[in-house]
TrEMBL record:
Keywords: Metal-binding, Oxidoreductase, Zinc
Cofactor: Zn(2+)
Protein name per its UniProtKB record: Galactitol-1-phosphate 5-dehydrogenase
Database matches in PROSITE patterns: ADH_ZINC
Signal sequence, renumbered to the chain: none
InterPro entries with a match to the protein in the record: ADH-like_C, ADH-like_N, ADH_Zn_CS, ER, GroES-like_sf, NAD(P)-bd_dom_sf, Zn_alcohol_dh
Pfam family, one: ADH_N
UniProt-recorded Gene Ontology molecular function terms: oxidoreductase activity; zinc ion binding
Keyword Transmembrane helix in record: no
Residue ranges of domain Enoyl reductase (ER) in the record: 8-323
Length: 359
């Protein structure tokens, strides 16, 4: 099969690789659409310690069941599905209290095992969620980043609160959408790219540059800023958010742009500001994301683009250089269906056998 492989900082190759085999409790998914995550962009730039090349990235995806292990129940071939890429051990102290997102032994598809920048990907069947057969695959692929946004909003936001968001990338825009669903008041999104700010305004937010907020803060937030969500995660955004938020307010840290930042900690102490880390999502967050997308409450028109997987290197370069007009780029995988005339003994024949014997 064909796959996009991360080979090191700013180096991606498009190659033929073996189709992943599946274990008895796994499903083989034929990828239809997969999105580029901001964390993968950081990995592409060499800023992610957890993405070790060579690696097939890709954890935001939708596809159809191509094959099933013999222990799988509740799925059938050709079901359209999305996949929760977060795999928890289920036995550590955090898992036992339901905090699967901070499982001490967590693994993630596209980081710790091959991901969906490929024609096929193998995943645990327990992480698979069916979606309507006629649902747009790219829309369904937003389940994972939307779950990230839902989780972040829940950590510090209260209904009717005003909200400041850093970053008009996919997570920032989806934070706007999730906050709207939860009854947000005034939402301001800060970004450096005019095209992205235009997307934020399309979502119903006010789009500004970080410099503009200093002059317009009182007019836009007459009651103050109770919570800020940083979807960028660099020194400048973290520090400004802490300085802008109300005494007793909260800064929700989602972005992973820089590993270390010098922050005004005395200001934090004197103003009782809360810094809250937000990582991935709960099972409930993911289910709620799927429900919102299925109901049609989130739109992809205008701020997303779809390309072929073999255009991956160019797409990553454009996003890294900040020249893409779109906040989100999806790839359509190049995945021809299982060939009926495949040679005996090939992997294709093995997949077909799995399909025929799946229960």
């Amino acid at each position: 099969m064909q796959a996009l492989i991360y080979q090191g900082p700013e180096k991606l190759t498009f190659e033929e690789v073996d189709v992943p085999s599946i274990r008895p409790n796994e499903a083989l998914v034929r990828v239809e659409s997969v999105g580029i995550c901001g964390s993968e962009l950081e990995g592409y730039l060499g800023h992610s310690s957890v993405r070790v090349p060579p690696l097939v990235m890709g954890h935001e995806f939708c596809g159809r069941i191509a094959a099933l292990g013999d222990q799988v129940r509740g799925l059938t071939p050709e079901d359209k599905v999305v996949v929760n890429p977060l795999m928890a051990c289920g036995t550590c102290a955090n898992c036992r209290r339901g905090a699967y997102n901070i499982c001490r032994n967590r693994k993630i598809v596209g980081i710790h095992r091959p991901g969906a920048f490929a024609a096929y990907v193998a995943v645990p069947f327990e992480n698979v969620i069916r979606v309507p057969q006629d649902m747009d695959a790219s829309l369904a692929s937003l389940a994972e980043p939307l779950a990230v946004a839902i989780h972040a909003i829940k950590l510090g936001f209260k209904p009717l609160d005003d909200l400041l968001i850093y970053g008009a990338g996919p997570i920032g825009l989806l934070c706007v959408a999730a906050a709207r669903q939860m009854g947000a008041g005034n939402i301001v999104v800060l970004d450096l790219q005019p095209a992205r700010l235009a997307h934020a305004e399309r979502f119903g937010a006010i789009g500004l540059s970080p410099r503009e907020i200093e002059d317009r803060r009182e007019a836009l937030f007459p009651q103050g800023i109770p919570v800020a969500i940083d979807c960028v995660g660099v020194q400048a955004t973290r520090e400004q958010a802490m300085n802008l938020v109300d005494p007793g307010g909260a800064v929700i840290m989602v972005g992973l742009g820089q590993g270390n930042s010098e922050l005004p900690m005395n200001h934090l102490v004197r103003q009782e500001i809360s810094l809250i880390g937000s990582y991935t999502y709960s099972h409930e967050d993911f289910r709620q994301a799927v429900a919102l997308l299925t109901r049609g409450d989130i739109a992809i028109e205008g701020w997303t683009e779809t390309r072929s997987l073999d255009e991956g290197p160019a797409a990553f370069r454009e996003l890294a250089e900040g020249i893409s007009r779109f906040s989100k780029i999806f790839f359509e995988a190049l995945n021809p269906p299982i060939a009926a005339d495949a040679q005996p003994g090939s992997d294709v024949i093995e997949w077909a056998q799995f399909i025929r014997t799946a229960r």
